[in-house]
Task: structure prediction
Amino acid sequence: MVSNISLKGLSFIMLLIILLVASCNNENSLIINNEKGWEPYGLDSLAVGCLVFEEPYLYACGGKKGLWRRNVRTQTAWEYLGFADTTSGDDYDVGVTEVDVRGNDILVLFSPGEKCEYFDPALVGIWRSKDNGKTFIRSDSGIVDDYGNPSHFVFSIGRSYINPMIGLATTETRFRTTNGGDSWYPIDDIRFFPGGEEQKWHPNKSLDVWILYKGGLWDFIQHSKDGGITNTSIGRFPPEPVGGLNDIDFDAADSNVVYIASIPLIKSTDSGLKWFFPMGSRSLPIFQIVSHPLIHDLLYFNSWDLYRSTDGGKSITFVGKPNDIEINSMIIDHYTNILFVATNKGIIKYNP
Result:
């Protein structure tokens, strides 16, 4: 009788264990289901940095492995466009770090990196193609060093979305172009401090550019409404963020909305006159942010894992990511709503 009760008790315990395991598996399967939208998209051997869309291509900056692109409509294989560097060393910020594309007009930056070492001097600088990537020529005439001598050392490039004849190149001195990048001229005092500056042009305002400086004693942002000629410094934010300033993006449907990735997320609805924390004290640290080019209030955030917001950052939904990757940048395909993510192990895509 005792053995029969013990046997029943043992069976009951085993049933509980099975149910608990099934429950745990079900929880894990929910997480996996959440990540079933993730798929590899090639270039697995590359640490990919900047991503740029110009219909029908997705362009990928592969650092010292060069510049690549893929037709996302026909799903052809990745096409190599050049600029691979075979010198020793593999710093993440050396090589092809930025690309600006307008139709057949491609502007490429081969950066020497913050350390200014381990690169092929024959490749460093700005290059331009006007025949859809068939040929590239040097396009950094007018760039000079802090002594006024011709230089190829540039750390950031960008052009106006609406008028791509206007653009900026930065070392620490800022240079401007009015012919799409064929030549440049300085717009402030000549000085040289390696790295740090990033620029974001507003997609709906011709001469509106925000310049983010990172890596010095403090982070700060400058805003220009005339294509970089005059700049207003935004040194402090009321309220003040806890962490550094990591990234900037805009709501394409509301030209007055600006987002700043920080700790916490910072937002303005009046083009930067006033700022607030849309998530309040609940905000995660935000390292990168990307907004949908057409859909109002739709955002993705990188906070170690990926999150999605459909209400302009008031609330977020966990998206997750495949394990063991480092997210470098993100971009959204406005036709399919697919999120492409550049990582240290190639490109992945998320289909919501």
